[in-house]
Specification:
There is one protein chain. The protein is mainly α and 187 residues long. It has a single domain, classed as nmb1532 protein domain like (Four Helix Bundle (Hemerythrin (Met), subunit A)). It has 7 helices and no strands. Helix 3 packs antiparallel against helix 4. The protein binds fe (ii) ion (2 copies). One fe (ii) ion (FE2) binds next to helix 3 and helix 5. One fe (ii) ion binds next to helix 1, helix 3 and helix 5.
Length: 187
Amino acid sequence: MQQLIERLYEDHKHLSRVINCLQKEMYGFSGGPDAPDMSVILDAMDYIRNYPDAFHHPLEDRIYAQMESRISDTELLQMLQRIELQHHQLHALSTRLQNDFHAIANDQAMPVERLLNDFQAYHELIAEHMKCENRYLIPAIEQYLQPEELEAIREELDARPDPMFGGQLLAQYEGLYKYLIESEQAA
Ligand SMILES: [Fe+2]
Ligand SMILES: [Fe+2]
């Protein structure tokens, strides 16, 4: 139990750190003194698409599906349905944002207003989403999941470590990780 709960909280903290990097680089598009570092931005988006979008949120959806029929608290059910809907919205927003950044990296025309709006939309939703999950989804998991279900999820978690923060840093994220640590130390 504790391992699953801690992993979800830790994943949220790690994603927040990556989004902070993106936010810092976004100043370069809105009049900040430094040009945005496109390799940091593209790697951050790649991480978001590769781990939170591809594994963390889908895992939360499967956990919710497992426990949904046991929950009679309608307010809690509404919040969990909202979280599930946010997963679809986040997927659409991060896809769009990644496409925006790829267009810029390939010197295609991209209105800066659109880019700033797309980033803001993703940023606001992911912040709200993680707050909702910490407050409603994770406590519900602690309350409604059976030990054998937790064991099955633990095996899934062991098989899919976070590619940047999970103990073995994937080579493709080495630059991003170094940037992240240095920018946090400088703050
Ligand atoms: Fe989450
Ligand atoms: Fe989520």
